[in-house]
Amino acid sequence: MSPISRGRKPKKPKNQLSRPPRPFPDVSRVERWPKLLHGPIELSDCAVQGQVDQDLVVLAATLTAGKRSVGVEVVVNGREVDVIELHPDPADALGVLRGGFEVAEAPLTPEEFRSQVEAALIVKADSDAWLRKVAPQLFELGSRPESDLPQRAGQLRRWLGLPEYEPVPRSRGTDSLPLVLPPPGKATGMWIAVAVEEPEPAIWRRLEVRTDLTLAALHRTFAAVFGRDEQQDHRFETAYGGFSADGQGGEGDRLDDQVLLGQVVTAPGHRLAYEAERWRHWIRVEQLVALPEAPSCLDGERAAPPPECEDGQAYEMLLEAMRDSDAEENEDLLEELGGYGFDPEWFDREGVNARLG
Questions:
Q1: Strands 241-244 and 254-255, bridge-based pairing
Q2: 37: pLDDT strictly greater than 50
Q3: In sequence order, which residues have a C-beta less than 8 Å from that of residue 342 and are 6 or more positions away?
């Protein structure tokens, strides 16, 4: 009988965080918010910042009214706003993720900043409304009494000139933006970070691709990058709906060979999700660059799970078995899950680019 079918569960390492500690609002300044800025607001120095191996970004900008300027920091976790904070020194707004981490930064236009903040506020409002509807007691239990995020969100909307929004009870996985695809723009190059969602520490790659690549071609690129069979079932989740090979990956899915990458993500900080069989990944745009001739891998960490590992649980079981590879009970497991000769810390950029070529 297979070790997997015997129901062995992988052991999780102790004291392991799934993501870095997140900053929380400084509630001591709640009452001062409305008094900080008066008159027309000018938006400048907009940027997005993110750690390469985490699906968490900071949108930062300088807000100026008259002679007063402050920095605004909007932490987006997944696709929704997690924290909104003001900084008397505008430069501090981009200091949250610095401090020993590898951080990618890119400038945004004021309109791109407004658009990304608005989209993240919508997802947050909708998910809160959904949770309040389906589990009101859980929602109240999970809401910190001292949290002033809704008030800060409303004030930020007014400062940025965003329209008022009436939440629709939708879960986080529901598309919050229109399903009508924008027309393709001018082709350019794009740096994207893609990471396998489950393992910690993260398995990630930084790729340079073209925005005129179809999502079907992007799937083939990922198959080469992670050493998988490109015939695997897969699906992309975007703000404009789902896309899969046959349009049957989910309700309302469309064909992934009929949409370009640059139609569903257009600026640094934009993101989408990708599933290949039972493996889920997140993808984040880091910056726009000159148009490359072909996809290439720029950086990354750790080996992709062996093809024999069909999901995150199997991979965790493999890692556990490798920590005690001499144990007789682990021999069959190592063979079944491709553990012999596998080094989880090995990353071969040249080998990845050879497969891409």
A1: parallel
A2: yes
A3: 303, 306, 318, 322
To the nearest 10°, report the CA torsion of 83, 84, 90, 92: -20
Closest to 109 measured CA to CA, from 23, 45, 200: 45
| pLDDT band, residue 39 (cuts 50/70/90) | confident
Considering only CA atoms, which of 149, 62, 104, 64 is closest in space to residue 285? 104
Cα gap 68→202, rounded to integer Å: 41
User: How would DSSP label each residue in 304-327?
Assistant: PPPTT--SHHHHHHHHHHHHTTTS
Domain count, the chain: 2
pLDDT in the model for residue 25: 39
Distance CA 212, CA 99 (A): 36
Segment 320-325 shows an average pLDDT of 88
Tell me the pLDDT band of 94, cut-offs 50, 70 and 90: confident
- 115 CB-near residues (< 8 Å, 6+ apart): 267
Q: What is the CATH number of the domain that holds 272?
A: 3.10.290.30
Q: Over the stretch 264-310, which tens digit does the pLDDT of each residue have?
A: 999 999 999 999 999 999 999 999 999 999 999 999 999 999 999 99
CA distances to 32, 127, 322 from 134, rounded to whole Å, are 34, 11, 43
Residue 217 inside a domain? The answer is yes
Query: Does one domain contain both 153 and 251?
Result: no
Q: Which domain holds residue 255?
A: 189-306+342-356
